[in-house]
UniProtKB/TrEMBL annotation:
Entry-linked PANTHER family: DCTP PYROPHOSPHATASE 1
Name recorded for this polypeptide: Nucleotide pyrophosphohydrolase
Residue stretches in coiled coil: none
Entry-linked Pfam families: MazG-like (PF12643)
Top-level taxonomic group: Bacteria
């Protein structure tokens, strides 16, 4: 399944349950933030284990929740998510040219 098919499946799931009536931008933004916090929780107390491989399935589940709510938000706002991602990558490409940023974690204004 590609991303477009997954997005369509997520939207169909929501429509079958008539949940779009509850998906206003504010509540979707809250839900994205909450699910992102649950993803972060996977790494809580992991110490030096930065990968937390034993919790990969939980991270996958939480990442999917974040993505689904992002799909719902994009749909609600009329945003073409693929186009928005492409536009953002192009903007980041201008801010972080390869010759200055490769292997460097500094922010664009510090390069």
């Amino acid at each position: 399944m590609n991303f477009e098919e997954a997005a369509e499946k997520a939207l169909a799931f929501r429509e079958e349950r008539d949940w779009s009536q509850f998906h206003n931008p504010k509540d979707l933004a809250v839900s994205i933030s909450l699910e992102a916090a649950e993803l972060l929780e996977v790494f809580q107390w992991s110490g030096a284990d930065l990968e937390v491989a034993r919790k990969a399935s939980k991270a996958k589940e939480e990442l999917a929740d974040v993505a689904i709510y992002c799909i719902y938000m994009a749909d609600r706002l009329g945003v073409d998510l693929a186009e928005a991602i492409s536009d953002k990558i192009e903007a980041n490409d201008r801010k972080y040219p390869v010759e200055k940023s490769r292997g460097n974690s500094r922010k664009y204004n510090e390069l």
